[in-house]
């Protein structure tokens, strides 16, 4: 479970642990936040361990799986990955005239390249019946020129979802994406600093509120569950009807 120290990732990690999974709480720098997630899962009777690796830098995939495998071996478990949730991502506001090569490299190296390579490697540990769940965004279904590079990176994720679902069908592995709308996390905190900003974001949902991490976690938990074994290659909207 990448990017599980905060926000939507934390919500998903806590939910999957409550549903019985042993969760690798991955993070980049925020050890304290990751530790708090592990503690909260354990306090609720679940199982979790922290896993630190910065994504988007050389050697990221190798160091992530070296640490992942070692953590499982320490628990007496053969390295194995039943559910991979690709959640960690970086955002960045830029309209087309503000786009720089650095921004494209940064966003694509974390949101696309690292995700693709860690999925390739994770699949070598995934048994029949496994799940790959990619956290996309509702902005792939509507026009959002304010964050054009970030939107494009999430579009790549949807394309990966479609291609991989067919590739992995013979192994009984499903591959789906979940598309949140605006959700109350650090990623968009700046947009919610005023009552007007908060009201504007809330008004994008037909429910007139901003989403919470647990709203997204419910959709992910469904895709990870046995009930979703016949669902693959889909983009499941979890935006509160943002684009209706
Ligand atoms: P946050 O910014 O709140 O949390 C990001 C998480 O990803 C943290 O755990 C962070 O770790 C980790 N992370 C960030 N950069 C890296 C990196 N380079 N290497 C490794 N880990 C990293 O994000 P959200 O919870 O808001 O978003 C989660 C997902 O949901 C993302 O894929 C996002 O694109 C998507 N999404 C979010 C929406 C929203 O409104 N919030 C809307 C639509 C989609 P650390 O704590 O160590 O920094």
From TrEMBL:
SUPFAM superfamilies: NAD(P)-binding Rossmann-fold domains (SSF51735). It comes from the Bacteria. It holds the Pfam family adh_short_C2. Keywords: Oxidoreductase. Signal peptide: none annotated. InterPro entries: NAD(P)-bd_dom_sf, Sc_DH/Rdtase_CS, SDR_fam. Belongs to the short-chain dehydrogenases/reductases (SDR) family. This is A-factor type gamma-butyrolactone 6-reductase ScbB. It comes from Streptomyces polychromogenes. The gene is scbB.
